[in-house]
Design brief:
418 residues, 11 strands
Length: 418
């Protein structure tokens, strides 16, 4: 059944590349390897797959199945799994017996041989293996991606509330700032902005309590006085209670904004937790990790820095694999703030975002990120520096007015300048 499904889908969608990139070959088929080779060779020779009628007439043993909806990745995985099971059985039932007789008393030779055979089967039938993309021959696939991008451009990007910054799904975005300058407020604002534009969010805030994180989002969204909100002493309490009516369980689907704080992370925030959450929430497009140094870092070497490097590299892979934007918040050391300290003629502190090289603990966070934003704020005056980007906006500084207690983080209007 699986063999008919994958070949039928290839014919329906005129697509062989999406199967070949998972290293599928005729040897993975028990019955229809010859049909698979025919379709692939036909595509190479004539530029498109044959129609179903041609294949059925050529191979009476092939039963065409119309309208297969399962994606190629799932079909390829199931085909590889079946091939692994079949080849393992054949090895044990036939080849192993013959080899055992051949080596006689040389048990170690037999063990080495059978180990190598199983390793070959494992390597050739791995379900998570991709043969990559051959740029020299995948013009059709790239053509389809281009028109898909043209039609769905707005779905590939997460809107940023500041400037004309582009944040692409699958990317790693790093936000760096000095201690107590408002980086958590900024990341919450970016998450809220993305959510209000229809993107599901998972927000990890291991430093705050759930109530603290909720009140920050409420302040940014409804501009309620944060200090009064946390004490339960709002001057506009009636407006707040009416506002909460918008956040009730409803029958229709909703865009999620999932908060995980210290109460939800008894064993700390780990890569495994993030991966599990993404698997359980396929409607999420953005992940916020508010505090890279607060994660539980493992592997990569003996030092904590090596472990942090390992975490950063794995996060980059995770964001790309699940197609989500990852916003990682990291602290710039106090020493950097002292180095950057400047005052104007009146003795007031000049707001100056940290430079890209003033990271803390590990350079991996800077190397792995496709977009690096650094931030500084003092007395309501904020600045965001685009320190790294794919777009030609590196070095751009965005001025912000910041009133965190009332939930305002916005670029100054022209009227504010006069």
């Amino acid at each position: 059944m699986i063999e008919e499904q994958i070949i039928s889908k290839m014919l329906d969608e005129n697509n062989v590349h999406s199967v070949l990139k998972f290293n599928v070959n005729s040897g993975d088929f028990e019955r229809l390897g010859h049909v698979f080779d025919f379709v692939v060779d036909y595509r190479k020779k004539y530029g498109s797959c044959p129609d179903a009628e041609t294949v059925v007439s050529e191979f009476p043993d092939f039963e065409y199945m119309e309208g297969v909806h399962e994606p190629f990745k799932g079909l390829s995985t199931r085909l590889k799994q079946a091939a692994a099971k079949r080849r393992s059985f054949e090895l044990i039932a036939t080849k192993a017996k013959a080899k055992f007789k051949e080596v006689g008393s040389k048990g170690d030779e037999f063990v080495a041989w059978i180990k190598k055979e199983f390793e070959n089967i494992e390597r050739e039938t791995q379900t998570d293996y991709s043969a990559g993309t051959d740029f020299a021959i995948n013009g059709q696939e790239r053509r389809e991606k281009y028109f898909e991008s043209k039609e769905k451009r707005t779905y590939q990007y997460i809107p940023c509330p500041y400037g004309d910054i582009q944040m692409e799904k699958g990317d790693y975005c790093l936000l760096m700032a000095y201690t107590n300058r408002g980086k958590s407020w900024l990341s919450s604002h970016m998450g809220l902005h993305a959510w209000k534009h229809g993107n599901g969010v998972i927000h990890y805030s291991p430093e705050l309590s759930k109530r603290q994180q909720e009140s920050r989002l409420e302040t940014l969204d409804g501009h309620f006085n944060n200090a009064q909100l946390r004490r339960g002493e709002l001057d506009d309490e009636e407006r707040y209670l009416d506002y909460l009516n918008n956040f009730e369980l409803r029958e229709e689907e909703h865009v999620p904004y999932i908060i995980k704080t210290m109460e939800d992370l008894p064993n700390g925030l780990t890569l495994d937790v993030i991966e599990a959450d993404l698997e359980m929430n396929p409607n999420v497009s953005m992940v916020i990790i508010d505090g890279f140094n607060l994660m539980t870092h493992k592997g990569g070497g003996k030092s904590n820095r090596d472990a942090m490097t390992n975490t950063s590299r794995k996060l980059r892979q995770l964001f790309g694999r699940f197609g989500v934007l990852g916003l990682v918040v990291h602290q710039t050391p106090t020493s950097a703030e002292k180095e950057n300290k400047e005052e104007d003629e009146a003795g007031a502190r000049i707001v100056k975002p940290p430079s890209i090289d003033q990271y803390s603990e590990t350079i991996a966070v800077v190397q792995d990120a496709a977009l690096v934003l650094t931030f500084d704020q003092h007395d309501g005056v904020g600045k965001v520096l685009v320190a790294k980007a794919r777009e030609p906006i590196v070095g751009k500084v965005i001025d912000l007015h910041c009133n965190f207690n009332l939930g305002f983080i916005e670029e100054p209007q022209l009227t504010d300048l006069f």
